[in-house]
């Protein structure tokens, strides 16, 4: 079979009807080509592994070969990444990973529409921006709604993006302070008696929030704002009885709130304030029989104007690629477990637990 070659420049607009088995993409610029390839060609190697194509480089040209569908997808991926680079965005290995997910899911949005337009520049001068369609819609929801729920599995960027939006709002003087809260619930393990004052006792529960905060701001700047009370990191119990005006409030790990705690938190919101509530309903650490406040809120608040629920799934995971596979494996296990329980219940309902013992007529005792 004759191998076809697809030249993108300037023929992209006049692409042949038959999908190619090889392609040549010329980015026409050495600096763009280097940025696209990544450090030691790590971006190209990732494309090869994920898409099942071979990628070679000759000057400013990328030579792609492999199955026709994979090559066509790779050409589209390269074009979108080139657009991002020309817009001033540095493309890292994890950006390529997420770009493959975004383009693979389809939809009207291009990669640039999803991943361009940074929310914030981190302390390391890296841009923090959405990396999936769900993340983009989540950021838009935070901008346009006063209460937003971000619900989904670990690693989908729910808390991280909420923190980035909070810091951006503070820098733009849209709010006067940031309040970060978490319920202090043990995640399966027993931590025992913790030494120190109250702040030191709850610090292990709040450490992830501090980590994210220091990733977005220089350490001394973040510490200074915490000391001044501009940024407050506290356990959820500290919210009781307060009215939070001119504040960006984040409640993390909300699946571990009770119904009463969730109501208490949501009713703290004052004028010119935003609240973002994040959690994973599959990781509830409350005592058995205690309903999660996050699940309850999702069931009764969904149709209230001004409140938005943003749902994430395993395809939105932005951590190590294996995290997505781990989540899928656990979900598959839970589904199989539920189906086995249903089958066992059905069998038990059909068959009586114990067969009835026939009555034996006793013989009269001779006197």
Automatic annotation (TrEMBL):
Listed name of the protein: PhoH-like protein
Subcellular locations according to the entry: Cytoplasm
PhoH-like protein domain span: 127-331
Domain of life: Bacteria
Keywords: ATP-binding, Cytoplasm, Nucleotide-binding
Gene3D superfamilies attached to this UniProt entry: P-loop containing nucleotide triphosphate hydrolases
InterPro entries named in the record: P-loop_NTPase (IPR027417), PhoH (IPR003714), PhoH2-like (IPR051451)
DNA damage found in the keyword field: no
Region Disordered, annotated ranges: 343-367
Annotated family: Belongs to the PhoH family.
GO terms for MF: ATP binding
Assigned GO CC terms: cytosol
Compositionally biased intervals (Acidic residues): 351-367
């Amino acid at each position: 079979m004759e191998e076809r070659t697809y030249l993108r420049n300037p023929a992209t607009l006049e692409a042949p009807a038959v999908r190619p088995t090889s392609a040549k993409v010329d980015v026409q610029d050495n600096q763009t080509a280097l940025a696209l390839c990544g450090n030691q060609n790590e971006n190209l190697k990732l494309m090869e592994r994920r898409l099942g194509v071979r990628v070679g480089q000759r000057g400013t040209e990328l030579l792609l070969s492999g199955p026709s569908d994979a090559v066509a997808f790779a050409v589209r991926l390269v074009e979108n990444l080139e657009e991002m680079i020309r817009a001033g965005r540095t493309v890292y290995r994890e950006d390529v990973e997420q770009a493959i997910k975004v383009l693979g899911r389809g939809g009207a949005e291009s990669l640039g529409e999803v991943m361009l337009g940074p929310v914030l520049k981190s302390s390391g001068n890296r841009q923090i921006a959405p990396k999936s369609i769900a993340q983009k819609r989540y950021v838009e929801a935070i901008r346009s709604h006063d209460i937003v729920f971000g619900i989904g599995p670990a690693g989908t960027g729910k808390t991280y993006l909420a923190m980035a939006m909070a810091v951006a709002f503070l820098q733009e003087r849209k709010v006067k302070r940031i309040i970060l809260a978490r319920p202090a619930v043990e995640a399966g393990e027993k931590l025992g008696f913790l030494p120190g004052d109250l702040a030191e006792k709850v610090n292990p529960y709040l450490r992830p929030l501090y980590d994210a905060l220091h990733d977005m701001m220089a350490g001394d700047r973040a510490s200074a704002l915490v000391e001044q009370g501009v940024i407050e990191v506290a356990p959820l119990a500290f919210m009781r009885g307060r009215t939070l005006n001119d504040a960006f409030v984040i409640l993390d790990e909300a699946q571990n709130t009770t119904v009463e705690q969730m109501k208490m938190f949501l009713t703290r919101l004052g004028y010119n304030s935003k609240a973002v509530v994040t959690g994973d309903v599959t990781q509830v650490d409350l005592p058995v029989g205690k309903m999660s406040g996050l699940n309850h809120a999702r069931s009764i608040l969904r149709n209230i104007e001004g409140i938005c629920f943003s749902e994430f799934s395993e395809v939105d995971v932005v951590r190590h690629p294996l995290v997505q596979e781990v989540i899928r494996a656990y979900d598959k296990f839970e589904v199989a477990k539920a189906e086995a329980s249903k089958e066992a219940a059905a069998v038990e309902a059909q068959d009586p637990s114990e067969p009835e013992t026939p009555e034996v007529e006793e013989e009269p005792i001779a006197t």
